[in-house]
Amino acid sequence: MLGRLRHVRLWDRQLPIWYDAEYRLPLTAFGKRTGLEPRRADLVAWYLLEWRWIARDNLRTPARVRYQDLARVHGEEYLESLTQRETLAQIFGVDPWDVPVDELMRTVRLGCGGTLAAAREALRRHGAAVNLMGGFHHAGPAHGSGLCAVNDIAVAVRALREDGFDGQVAILDLDAHPPDGTAACLRADPRVWIGSLSGSSSGSIAGVDETVLPPRAGDESYLLALDALVLRMPRPDFAVVLAGGDVLDGDHLGHLGLSLDGARQRDLRVARVLLGIPSVWLPGGGYHNDAWKVLTGTLIALLRHSRRPIRPGSDPMAARYMRLAKHLSGEGIVRRVAEIDLSDVEADLGLKPGPKTLLLGAYTSESVEFALYRFGLLAFLERRGYGQFRVEFGTATTGGERVAVFGRAEGIEHLLIDGVIERTTVGGEEMLYVHWLSLRDPRARFSERRPKLPGQEMPGLGLAREVTELLVMLAARLGLAGLAYNPAWFHTAYVARGGFRFLDPAAQGRFEALERDLGHLSLALVSQALAEGRVLMNGEPFEWKAELMVYRAAGAPDDRGAVEAERDRVAFTLAGEAGGGREGDPPAPRGV
Ligand SMILES: [Zn+2]
Q: Which of 173, 151, 153 shows the shortest CA–CA distance to 161?
């Protein structure tokens, strides 16, 4: 083996990668329910670019797959049903109102087009190609399920056949779920072999060499089973690898229990076996905070054949935003008042009355709208059906400055983002204090799938992370030490728990204990119970208080001792809790 490989390069810096910003599904209720990170493709592309694993010309832009290509696999009646929001809502496990049909189908068709283009390119270059979306292996000829509307794998194989390719195909499905749809779509093709290594079976699937591992099998037994499966694989002329992101220990829907290093070893072994063979690599599912790291690892395995771990604590979105921010100031677009506008000073001098025109004395409404555009927030809102955006500033009665972002839909102007911010001193440091921040989707509705959280007037936009990142950047640009706010509810503290910490170490300790003791319950249930005084601390009723939470640019102070002392001192229970059920948590949709 080694003799044969001696002269073969194990790295592939020209690896073509299909990616589009519109790979993000235009659904808002989605991430929370399934543990799926809708920004996975973005995070992977940004990580690889920011940490220089790839250059911009590795990235290829997909075209939407043609209906003609889809029709080789799927029946026309089924394809027509995909123009109905009810069909799509069922496949993606969301409510029908949450489905912008055209935009959702655009994402689905872009993903499928990416797989098809990658397949053709893999054959052309006799090597690997990657699509950062795809592996929709549950879609059958006349039905879709588990987030799979069309079967991109089968569509690509059938298109290659149409192109005249008649070689042996191997589909190595390493997603945690078995490829029922793919098998059904390609049943008639005798030169297609399908091998699957999963942690759950929906009964044995005809035409699939299927290995079902016991729950939480772990790295060692997984890799042994993988070696055995690969030995049974006929030598392919073209291969598809579903390098599933749902293999990690702790995944919401997959139960294989792999470590990140185990997943990397999986990819390294398969990459070595397929060296010099045209192969398309797809991400499949992934319902874990670290699922994006699995896909990033797949790319690193293919690019450099490296086992080097993902940089600990790396945050591709923050890195990306910071770089964009530098570009913006370099382009001179987001400038300080001194350079562009004196109206504020004139108003102060009583020369000219008028509405507040600058935010924090520094930003015009145009510059805020431009930043929302440049960081991709307006594009997402457009896909949700809003347009003709308008940014308005004002003064809040509670103190602080108000920023409101409006957008029009069906002839009506809606308030989408509403925030009140102020420069102020917190814990001896000057910070940007957020009095109030509301991200609203006025056309959305609460439902069983999407319960109303305490304090919520209407469902959110799914942009909390982006807006927080923008505020962190804003604080940095104003030379402030960080960002601060008082979470009025448990869930508003919970969404910020990554970068924010309670200023008071005892409050931080209690918060961590709440996560530890009630983390098995749904977020909505815990937040509601806290708001209603139904949570007990050491047996006594516990009242949630809106204590100060801060994000510091310089990092958190070393108060772990005090945090841990309080965390270990307290224990939380739900009043009248009968045991660890997940009541109030509606069934999650099946994943990819
Ligand atoms: Zn899966």
A: 153
Distance CA(537)–CA(571), nearest Å, equals: 6
Gap from CA of 290 to ligand 1 centroid (Å): 15
Q: Which distant-in-sequence residues (6+ apart) come within 8 Å of 561 by Cβ?
A: none
- 522-534, pLDDT tens digit by residue? 888 899 999 999 9
Q: What's the gap in Å between 34 CA and the centre of ligand 1?
A: 12
pTM of full prediction above 0.85: no
User: Distance, CA 591 to ligand 1 centroid (Å)?
Assistant: 6
Please state the domain extents for the chain.
17-309, 315-478, 486-586
Which pLDDT tens digit goes with each residue over 42-96?
999 999 999 999 999 999 999 999 999 999 999 999 999 999 999 999 999 888 8
- For 261-347, where are the E strands, in sequence order? 279-282
Q: CATH for 17-309?
A: 3.40.800.20
Q: How far is the CA of 128 from the centre of ligand 1 (A)?
A: 22
- Distance from residue 547's CA to the centre of ligand 1 (Å): 40
Q: How far is CA 428 from CA 331, 425, 479, in A?
A: 34, 6, 15
C-alpha distances in angstroms, 268 versus 33, 247, 273, 298, 582? 32, 15, 9, 8, 38
Q: Say if residue 551 is exposed, middle or buried (CB neighbours under 10 Å; 0-12, 13-18, 19+).
A: buried
